[in-house]
Amino acid sequence: MKRLTPYLCGWLILLFSSLASADLTIQITKGSDQAIPIAVVPFAEQDGTLPEDIADIVSNDLARSGQFDPLARSALVATPHTSDQVYYRDWRAVDSNYVVVGQVTPQGNDYRIQFELMDVYGEKRMLGEAVTVSANQLRAGAHYVSDKVFEAITGVRGAFSTRIAYVTAQGAGDDRQFALHVADADGHNGQQILGSDDPIMSPAWSPDGKKLAYVSFESGNSAIYVQNLATGQRVQLTSFSGINGAPAWSPDGRRLAMSLSKDGQPEIYVMDIGSRGLQRLTNNDSIDTEPSWAPDGQSLVFTSDRSGGPQLYRYNLGSGQSERLTFTGNYNSRGRFSPDGKTLFMIHRGNDGFHVARQDLDTNRLTILSDSRWDESPSVAPNGSMVIFATQQGNRGVLSVVSADGNASYRLPSAQGDVREPAWSPFMN
Amino acid sequence: MKFKPYAKGLAVAVSLAVMAGCSSSGGTQDGSMNGTGGGTAGGMGAGGQGVSGGQVSGTQMGGGQQQQAGIPDVRTIYFDYDKDTIRPEFESVLNSNAQYLRSHPNANVVLQGHTDERGTREYNLGLGERRAQSVERFLTVQGVSPSQIDVVSYGEERPAVEGHNEQAYAKNRRVILDY
């Protein structure tokens, strides 16, 4: 049995130190025709007063991934709660490849969530586990179930227990209010962690998921700050003249790459967070910005318009050399590596607007993933399965998510103002 | 801290300028403008709806600067898409600001560079800075001391006009001279 503690403790403190913000909702915009049929049976609960519907949360998680097609509740042929109550032929009859069953039992102030996963055609139990959570961690408990089910079937670690950071802007002109939020990956439990009359940009998670670096204009110029999410404590890391932008943590969490224009035009620097020492990586007349580390920490991708328009380059820390990576089209920017380092996600300008695109770094083949037109700020889930980005819906900025293969997508519209600059957290547990 | 005065003081001037620009419907009263308005490089969006000299005269009309003796009324200039070159019709605006700064060596100005919303945000910070630096170069060539000038780029973060069309974009690609 497992207790969900480390991540949730931090989360609880955050609850007290920040304001709740309205949840983002989910609208699935494109489903994959290769999605695996699965039945998630409502979990048994003793008195029926559980504030959260665990099976519903699991079902929504799996559907959102684009890799699963959960059976509608009305189509369930039976309601087993343990594996010995599952008759495989029932589920074969409704073409479900897998069945998830479970039960929730109170234990003092906590709840014990037991769950099992069955392979219908293999006629075998694949998974049987229990997790104990407190009453306000039931959603987290459900996401844990989703993570385990996803991994057991796909072989890829689930990323449903992760979080997202994003920026909102409300109001027009000089009355515009900016805020930085953190929410669960499904848009629930949104918390505002910073509000300002001045722009907030470019949130970036530390690799341990405990801090956010971001850009704030509260001093009258851009400056990079680092904020501890549990304590709310924040430190201003830079205040150079000119642009202080695009913070990006090194995989070891000890350095921050950034774009600084203190010497005339934006150049890529790496700051040692402990000593504040700066190492300059680029030196030319162009705009060099939007650095992001390769997962092995040996190189960084960044945007540069040294060729005339923005293209992506890779700076190798060992050799000190930069090489151009993108050659398709005249606008490729804001590169982000997949967790295995083999793929680059970016914003690519096509004939009809700005799209999220993917480039295979072996073949250099570029594939457009999104069918929206004004996409920005792609950020990759820690398991590499999905990319969250900002786009426009009507006249409003919304967050959208597309699977890494482009086959499935969903949106996270907000009731309030423009939402932009999503950053997907690392794994939290 | 330096931002608030701009917010209050310039809002009037900018919105008047915008209104004037709108009511003259992309006015191309200034014949010398021809050719500059169409500069929407890269094929994005509608053809350039010129934000034209109409704004200049419009703002002077509604100027209403109260006690700030001598500070030029027009302190915003506009740019073509993806460009940082000073459009000829705005040289007079910069000249009058340069003249003011030369004759008031204790006056300081913050050049705020802005872009439209297209493209990625951090890259647009760089483009906004280029526009402000372009104005800075113009002013220093006119004899303004560099010590009187500060540059801040807001990229696409502070649009003057909401909207996802070329008319809004044209009014957002700007440098504001904030005294």
Give me the secondary-structure topology:
The complex is a heterodimer of chains A (429) and B (179).
Chain A: E1 2-3, H1 6-17, E2 19-20, E3 27-30, E4 36-40, E5 44-45, H2 54-64, E6 68-70, H3 88-93, E7 98-107, E8 110-119, E9 124-134, H4 138-154, E10 163-170, E11 177-184, E12 191-196, E13 200-205, E14 211-216, E15 223-228, E16 234-236, E17 244-249, E18 255-260, E19 267-272, E20 278-280, E21 288-293, E22 299-304, E23 311-316, E24 322-324, E25 332-337, E26 343-350, E27 353-360, E28 366-368, E29 376-380, E30 386-393, E31 396-403, E32 409-412, E33 418-424
Parallel strand pairs in A: 1-9, 4-6, 4-7, 5-7
Antiparallel strand pairs in A: 2-12, 3-32, 7-8, 8-9, 10-11, 10-33, 11-12, 13-14, 14-15, 15-16, 17-18, 18-19, 19-20, 21-22, 22-23, 23-24, 25-26, 26-27, 27-28, 29-30, 30-31, 31-32
Helix pairs in contact in A: 2-4
Chain B: H1 3-23, H2 53-61, E1 76-78, H3 91-103, E2 109-114, H4 121-141, E3 149-155, H5 166-172, E4 174-178
Parallel strand pairs in B: 2-3
Antiparallel strand pairs in B: 1-4, 2-4
Helix pairs in contact in B: 1-2, 3-4
